[in-house]
Design brief:
The protein contains 5 helices and no strands. It is mainly α.
Length: 196
C-alpha cells in the first residue's frame, strides 16, 4: 500500500504542477483549448486523490488527503467562478500551489511507511539467514557422523568377508563368518560360512 500511495502521490504532484501550468497559460493567453486542458487536469487531480484515499492511510496521511480533496474542490470552484472574473482564477492557482505541500507530506509519509516495511523485511531476512547458518552448522557435523557410522557399518563386514574369503582361499576353514549388519551382508556371510 505504501508503494501504491507513493506512486499515486507522485502522479498527483505532477498533475498539480501541470494543472497550475495550464491554468497560468490560460490566464495569460485565454485560449479555449487551454481551458479544456485545465478542466481535464482538474478531473484527473480529483480522480487521483480519490485513488489515494481508497488505500489504507494512517491518520496523518488521511488528514492530508482530506485537505487536498477539499482544497481541490475550493480551488476548482474559484476556477469556475473565475471564468467570469480573473481574480478568482488567480486565487485558484494560489490554492493549487498550497496543495503541493500537502501532497509532499503524503509522499514523505508513504516513503516512511515503505522504509519501515523494508526494515522489517531486512530484519526477517537476517533472522532467516542466521537460522539457515545455524542449521547448516548443525547438519554438517551430523552428516559427517552419519557418514562415518554408515562407512563403519558397511566396511567392517566387507573387511570380515574379505578376510574369510582369503582364509578359505588358503585352505583354512576354521575361521567362522560372523556378520550381523547389514542384513544383505549377513546372508552373504551365512552362505560363506555354509561353504566352510
Amino acid at each position: 500500500d505504501g508503494v501504491a500511495v507513493s506512486q499515486l502521490s507522485n502522479e498527483m504532484r505532477d498533475e498539480l504542477q501541470d494543472l497550475e501550468r495550464a491554468s497560468r497559460q490560460y490566464l495569460a493567453i485565454r485560449d479555449r483549448d487551454l481551458l479544456l486542458l485545465s478542466e481535464r487536469r482538474w478531473d484527473r487531480a480529483h480522480q487521483l486523490i480519490r485513488e489515494i484515499e481508497a488505500h489504507p492511510l494512517d491518520a496523518d496521511m488521511a488528514r492530508r488527503a482530506s485537505l487536498i480533496r477539499h482544497g481541490l474542490a475550493d480551488a476548482r470552484l474559484d476556477w469556475q467562478v473565475g471564468t467570469a472574473e480573473s481574480e478568482s482564477m488567480l486565487d485558484s492557482v494560489a490554492g493549487i500551489q498550497a496543495l503541493e505541500a500537502q501532497i509532499d507530506g503524503i509522499r514523505s509519509a508513504a516513503a516512511k511507511h515503505i522504509d519501515q516495511r523494508l526494515a522489517h523485511v531486512r530484519r526477517a531476512s537476517d533472522h532467516a539467514r542466521r537460522d539457515m547458518l545455524l542449521s547448516v552448522l548443525t547438519l554438517i557435523p551430523l552428516a559427517a557422523l552419519l557418514a562415518y557410522i554408515c562407512s563403519v557399518v558397511v566396511t567392517r563386514p566387507l573387511r570380515d568377508l574379505y578376510r574369510t574369503i582369503s582364509e578359505l582361499g588358503h585352505g583354512r576353514y576354521s575361521h567362522p563368518v560372523n556378520i550381523t549388519l547389514p542384513s544383505e551382508m549377513r546372508r552373504l556371510g551365512d552362505q560363506l560360512d555354509w561353504l566352510r
